[in-house]
Amino acid sequence: MMPEKEQLGLDSEMKRRRNGETWEFEDDIDDTSVSVSDGVLLGLDGGTTSTICICMKMVYFSHSQLQSLPILSRAVAGCSNHNSVGEIAARETLEQVMADALSKCGSKRSSVRAVCLAVSGVNHPTDQQRILSWLRDIFPSNVRLYVQNDAVAALASGTMGKLRGCVLIAGTGTIAYGFTEDGKEARAAGAGPVLGDWGSGYGISAQALTAVIRAHDGRGPSTMLTTSILQTLGLSSAEELIGWTYADPSWARIAALVPVVVSCAEAGDEVANKILLESAQELASSVKAVVGRLGLCGQDGKDAFPLVMVGGVLEANTRWDVGKEVMKCISKYFPGVLPIRPKVEPAVGAAWLAWNFFMKEYNRELCSS
Amino acid sequence: MMPEKEQLGLDSEMKRRRNGETWEFEDDIDDTSVSVSDGVLLGLDGGTTSTICICMKMVYFSHSQLQSLPILSRAVAGCSNHNSVGEIAARETLEQVMADALSKCGSKRSSVRAVCLAVSGVNHPTDQQRILSWLRDIFPSNVRLYVQNDAVAALASGTMGKLRGCVLIAGTGTIAYGFTEDGKEARAAGAGPVLGDWGSGYGISAQALTAVIRAHDGRGPSTMLTTSILQTLGLSSAEELIGWTYADPSWARIAALVPVVVSCAEAGDEVANKILLESAQELASSVKAVVGRLGLCGQDGKDAFPLVMVGGVLEANTRWDVGKEVMKCISKYFPGVLPIRPKVEPAVGAAWLAWNFFMKEYNRELCSS
Q1: Strand, helix or coil at B80?
Q2: Are residues B307 and B357 part of one domain?
């Protein structure tokens, strides 16, 4: 893709020196001392709350052994959603967290075989292209680069890097994403709170806050949520909620009230119960839309397909289990649904994806040569 | 309230000189040249979009002649909601717009008899106290000062300064506010979009945007809103709406889509129609809550009471008339409801309020002396 740049001799020294100190650590690594002769993989999960980069040993073997691929290092940074922090800050965070992961395990960019960047805010092919174009400037030209929405890494974390099936994420936000074996993809929700992600942690909490205001106004039934939420936030009246939401409208701060809603529902509060039930139905409707569009359930609607479930709202290990309720709604439509709760984090899924993508190209090239 | 300050001699020179150039124009006004011997009133309507200050001639006569009180000047400034722009910026905007109004008609602070500041974001007695405390530093100590929520000025604009009845505002945001003759007050909604002001212009547009995303996802029926909204915004796909909302989440920008929703509903789009119908019901439920709590409708629910209706959503002079639909919902419950669409702007209502408050105190003092 970049013959001109290589001809200009940009490929080594300039890439090494970009961004000041970010890559300086590479000077101290002796090429012959690199312990990973086959190279390494980078898997990156970039979300609105944090960004995690996993460095994994590259091994050329069959997919079934993927789970035993050793993790060499793990680095953590802040938000890398370009919609939230802007393009430049997002780019710097992503570059730094990759440098940190490599530095931690004594590797450098020349050892990297493939990178999978799975970041939230990648909603359109143009987002992908924009990220790929600056990513190409960081790594040597033989490194394979893949850019995906972060939901794809979450799916891969439950399917061992295979892009087949559906993933439902419900944390602060929510999205459903799916792939067929032959590469068709579809998504639902994941558009942010203005555009109606109602089953998300933010959505659940915003509805609970609304219920408190409605009860106070006389527009809605009284609810246990009033006392519980005001107490949790250290406020003395429902009017004070207005100032509280204006003071800092960050979605994560509002989404943090989900456990209060769950507790009230468990204690028998009808309003809280209704919010959780409707949220579960919302989440299920996202999955149904994706599965239906991709035909993951087969023509008779009964084929088996994996549904990877990720995020705080679905993991809540409580009596009122939103994840279980979502499954109940979905299995009515698709009896073949196979719920998976991943044992590894999405960044590992991203590294597995990098491995899968790389091996597919590698094998194709082997066959054609 | 402030004897200490007056004893310290702060009342004239320091007040004159505060905030640099704001009040410098007063130096050029000769006290004897002030044309308004009885003094002036200031009425101020401070919203999230703009702030308007009216300077009105003070006249000591009966209430029935209030409508003929001459407006001496009108000044306009930006947002003065402290929740949106912060306390300091809000204060500066409010002070400047009052100075502008006085300067425009050649009056100064010593001519002011009463000020009514009706500003959005006044949701709690502490908000009122905070504003009063800095307002007292601006004006001579004999000036009567009143601070209200901006909804109160809107009510007064329809009732000629009398605080009796209910007002429903539906512009970018929405609020219902009511007063009884004996001073009881109640409000509903007006809590911002996070807290569920669904009948507002923002609410209507956000639901329309959500409907577009849902249709695109396969979670909802297809709708004319897709083509109409994308065309209005110059976007080519529903995914691009995500970036569009993130780029600038200001409520007014989103609320500006209301006319598109109305057009689609008029053209027979079911989704748009449902959004408007439900929004009208939401707005009606705010009014019902206020009227019910205050008993404005009397014990049998049939007493007459004024309902002042204000704001772009209710004024839309189109075939699909949200205001008319709201009235239909309300009059089912309260046949005595008397809709009023004010002919003057809320800032005039605020000035009338200042007159009413002032005259009440003035007459009480006359009687007791």
Answers
A1: coil
A2: no
